[in-house]
Amino acid sequence: MSGRKYFGTDGVRGIVGGDCINAGFALRLGYAAGRVLAGEAADAASGRPTVVIGKDTRISGYMLEAALEAGLSAAGVDVLLAGPIPTPAVAYLTRAWRLAAGIVISASHNPHYDNGIKFFSGAGTKLPDATEAAIEARLEEPPGCADSAGLGRARRINDAAGRYIEFCKSTFPNALDLQGLKLVVDAAHGAAYHIAPHVFRELGAEVIAIGCQPDGFNINEGVGATHPEALQRAVIEHQADLGIALDGDADRLQMVDADGRLFNGDELLYAIVRDRARERAVAGVVGTLMTNVGFEQRMFELGIAFERAQVGDRYVLERLHQRGWLYGGESSGHLLCLDRHSTGDGIVAALQVLAALRHTGARRLADLTAGLALYAQKMVNVPLAPGLDWQAHEGLQAAIHAVERALSGRGRVLVRASGTEPKLRLMVEAADPVQADEGVRQLLAVRLT
């Protein structure tokens, strides 16, 4: 992604009203993307490409949707407006309807004053780097406009949510249902607020919905996968069997057991992989630099290959495609099951965990993860001075080596620069929590100057 001016690892993102997330830029982006797509694909019936636009529940989505629609239409691209709908729903619809691309207006787990614009290819996967580069190049040119006969048309799709609900249900085994389970479902006041409760309810579960009253400003505010304490309280209060929390665009998942215990992405991925391994051999799994070493060791014990990618579900997906594997994810809850969907999907991932419960007859997530012993992880962020080469900092490197020697192979040290802010992330992982804390204290004692 180096050398990009606008596109990051997951599209264009920023503060609403800033350099990129405003009406003028969105119109330019729509036109630039439209011109690139018009040169790559065309709808057989209309002679022009068609794009679907979905969004989450942020107030700024209305502005950005209208601007993108105008830019795409000016470029001669037809537009389908799906309204508030999860990011993975746009990926599904793009693929199912054989469209040229899908566009999502969302800043995922960020607060309402942020927003973003990201793209899916016609295959329902992240847009290829070459296409993003071509769009960036077009952005440097002033937007134009097709003549009247060449303008794109736009229409609103009223059944997009219903189509996606049926797709999600289709990823759950036909022979199983969720009868007898009481679930708390938290949609983070985001894009799945009118979808997630229906999916689980229609499969037979009793559903208590929270985080399903969006007002344009409360997305991710004290609820959802990034604030699971609301889910934990609700599960205990309602004496539910399980809790399911999504983030603002519903591609991230956290789950809670009946006693309020939180299960992260590593644990949920383990439950899915173990369930699949009972049916057929699992060739390999992809995690990230942040994946718990206990997960890696358990995969080795099970005879399943494991590889780490850079942090970001985009990189996990790329590695899965390179290796021809099906399962991967991040500790944060971005989980990929490529035998069910082309991208990470919080609802679909939750259904795979629930299927594992049904297959084993268990009612508790703890039963599914009993064989997984996670190491203690201690992570802190420290300011990183501009221009400081932390990788060549003698004091820091000496401290890293000292902590690694103390761990004696029973843990690891991970130091990396943040990709979004001037900070250095320091993590020590150890079988002994005391060692993890002590290791971080040693790293923090280094003066980064």
- Rg over CA atoms: 22 Å
Question: How large a portion of the residues is in β-strands, by DSSP E?
Answer: 15-25%
Give the overall shape. Answer: globular
Structural class: alpha/beta
User: Taking strands numbered 1, 2, ... along the chain, how are they ordered across the largest sheet?
Assistant: 1-5-4-2-3-6
- Give the oligomeric state of the chains in this entry, treating copies of one chain as homo and distinct chains as hetero: single chain
Average predicted local confidence, pLDDT: 93
Q: Can you count the beta strands?
A: 18
Q: Helicity, in percent?
A: 25-40%
Distance between the termini: 28 Å
- Unreliably modeled segments: 42-46
Helix count, DSSP H or I runs of 4 or more residues: 14
Main β-sheet: number of strands, strand sense, barrel status? 6 strands, mixed
Overview of this protein structure:
- The structure is a single chain.
- With 449 residues, the protein is an alpha/beta fold.
- It is 36% helix and 21% strand.
- A hairpin with a 5-residue loop joins strand 17 and strand 18.
- The longest helix is centred in the first third of the chain and has 18 residues.
- The chain is globular, with a radius of gyration of 22 Å.
